[in-house]
Amino acid sequence: MWSREASAWTSATPEQVWARWTDVGHWSTWDASLRASALRGPFAVGSRGDLQPTSGPRASFILTDVVPHRAFSNRMRLPLATIDFVHTLDLGADGRTRITHRIEIDGPLGALFVRLIGRGAADTLPAAVAALARQSEESRR
To answer: Could you tell me the pLDDT band of residue 140, with boundaries at 50, 70 and 90?
Structure first.
């Protein structure tokens, strides 16, 4: 399995970050690699949604893990491969919140999709996490 991740610290609370994560229709405000996103149903395991990247075809995803105010994961199925996006929050001793986004690609054709999708998606993680941290802090004001 191939994976890459990026993290950012923020003064925003886990609840403030969670509010941004669960507002799926506005993911593009903090993730510049997305043109649009939508969730059909509640923010719960099993709900399905769609992503429209700024480049590339529309992709469907399913929420595979949801732990309110702590973590969620969504999975995209590809031919003979899966891409998981894992999002976690950790509270530091200083009261700040660490946001981590990780991409994982697995399966028999995983290496192909790392080259086609993974590396480019991984390159966008630091900016997306930083923008999410900044916007979550702004919601405190």
So the answer is: low
What DSSP assignment string belongs to 79-120? Answer: TTEEEEEEEEEEE-TTS-EEEEEEEEEESTTHHHHIIIIIHH
pLDDT (average), residues 28-55:
96
Q: How many CA atoms lie within 13 A of 20 on its CB side?
A: 27
Query: Which SS3 state, helix, strand or coil, does residue 51 take?
Result: strand
Question: Are residues 59 and 53 in contact, defined by beta-carbon separation less than 8 angstroms?
Answer: yes
Beta bridge partners of 87: 72, 101
Q: Is the pTM of this model over 0.85?
A: yes
Q: Which of 70, 66, 105 is nearest to 85 (CA)?
A: 105
